[in-house]
Structures are given as structure tokens and as C-alpha cells.
Amino acid sequence: MLAGIWAWLVAPEQWSGARGIPMRALEHLGYSLLSLALAAAVALPLGLWVGHSGRGGWVVTVANAARAVPSLGLLFAVSMFVGPRISSNLAFVIPSVVVLVLLAVPPLLSGTYAGVRAVDPAARDAAYGMGMRGGEVLRRVELPCALPLLLSGVRAATLQVIATATIAASVSLGGLGRYLIDGLAVQDYPQMAGGAVLVAVLALVVDGLLALLTRYAVSPGLSDRSRRSGKRPRTDRVARPEGRVLAPDPTGALSTPTEES
What mean pLDDT do residues 20-28 have? Predict the structure, then answer.
């Protein structure tokens, strides 16, 4: 089986033409990025407002509850509703994008909301004490501090969308899901397994890129980079106001005071 999967992956015909792996991967990314962009346009501003104002927390609860809706069943339901009303290819694109947007909204909304609510109240109070207005506090204090959890939600949503975008092939769209649907139709199991491997690799590559973005977008003070930089405070001598210090003994405990030399 493994030999058959490898033979399918390295076959020259799989890497050229409109049905080749590069084109299928681009189609898959296209559906995924479009869905993520639409979901972010809704979820990020809403999550920032709910987290900043403290009102409308029920929206986050409802969004998380929507995760229980089966994606494939929702896809067929939307297709049956939209299909008779649209005659172009949008009859297949719209249902897939709607399902992927609904799938991406909960992690984006939850990550943004949790990030803003987790901001240290002292930092928020200090910003108000400096004369900042609500919008300035959100933009200059809460949003930078919320970036770690916000980007974590983006990563979770991206992985879910890329993995689930394979269902777009069920309504005659392209993408890497075509290898699973077409392989199942002719019982070509190496093709099905190869398509699954490609989806997994694509998800891991995109997640790695987002991890790099998180590393360089988040302030070092909010990440563990400062702790891994090798700069640690000196603990060999503890100063005392009267000019004496406490020197540690070999066991790690502090010995009796000695005069500062």
C-alpha cells in the first residue's frame, strides 16, 4: 500500500495539467483563504467588541455551539437551497464557502474574545489613567496584548478549514478533495490515501508559516522569547540597603551578612 501511494505521488502526470497536484493545491488554498478572509471580517471585529465592552458574551457561546453542526450535512442543505436559484458555477462555490465560513468563525471569535478578556486589568486601568479613550485602549493596549490568543484562534481556524475544504469536491468543485472523491468512485485507494497525505502536508506547511508569523508578530514580552534569550537576573548576591550583602552558600541558602568589599 505504501509503495502504491508513493508511486502515485511521484508519477509525472500528477504534477502537470489542470488536474495535477499544483493546480489542485492552489484551488484548495483559494477556497480556504476566501473562507478565512470572510470569517475574519465577521469574527475579529465582533470578538474585539465583545471582549472590550464585556457585552454580548452569548454570541461566543452560540458560535461555539454551532460547531456541533455536521459540515457535510450543512453543505448538502445549503446546496439544495442555493442550487435551484443560481444557474452558474456559484451554485457550487457558495455552499462550500458558507460551510467553511461557519466552521472558521467559532475559533476566530473565541480566540479574539479570550485574548481581549485576558488582558491585565492593571494595564487597561493605566491606559485609561493616561487619558486614552476606549478605542485607543482597544487599539494600543488590548489588541497587542491579545495577539497570542488571537493568532492561536487563527491557526486553529486555518487547520480546520484546510482539512474540511475537501468536502467541496462533494459538490463538483476542485481542490485536493477531488483525489478522495474520484479515487473512491473507481476504488483507487492509493489515490485516496495520496490525496489525504497532500491535505495533511498542506495543513502542516500553512500552520508552520502561521507559527513563524506568531513568533515575530507577538511582542517578546508576551512570549517566551525573552526567557530563552539567555539573559537572567543575577542571583549570586542580594544587595541590602545598609551596604551589606547576603552571599549564597554551596547548598543554595543565603549565609550570614558580610560587609561589601
Answer: 93
- Report yes or no on 2 lying in a domain: no
Residues 250 and 205 in one domain: no
Residue 63: inside a domain, yes or no? yes
Residues with Cβ within 8 Å of 13's Cβ and at least 6 positions away in sequence, in order, are 20
Whether residue 119 sits in one domain with residue 239: no
pLDDT value, residue 225: 53
pLDDT digits (tens, 9 = 90+) for 127-162: 888 888 888 888 888 998 899 999 999 999 999 999
Q: Are 74 and 101 in contact (CB under 8 A)?
A: no
**Cell numbers linked to 6:** 508513493
Residues 255 and 200 in one domain: no
Neighbours of 132 (CB within 10 A): 16
In angstroms, rounded to a whole number, what is the distance separating the alpha carbons of residues 131 and 143? 18
Q: Residue 44 above 80 pLDDT? A: yes
Q: Which residue has the cell 551578612?
A: 257
Closest CA to 106 of 164, 51, 53, 46: 46
Q: Cα separation of 198 and 151, whole Å?
A: 24
Give the number of domains in the chain. Answer: 2
Q: Domain range for residue 235?
A: 231-261
Residue 155 cell numbers, joined: 491557526
Would you give the distance in Å from CA 67 to the centre of its chain?
16
Residue 79: C-alpha distances to residues 95, 131, 168, 170, 225 (Å):
5, 52, 11, 10, 47
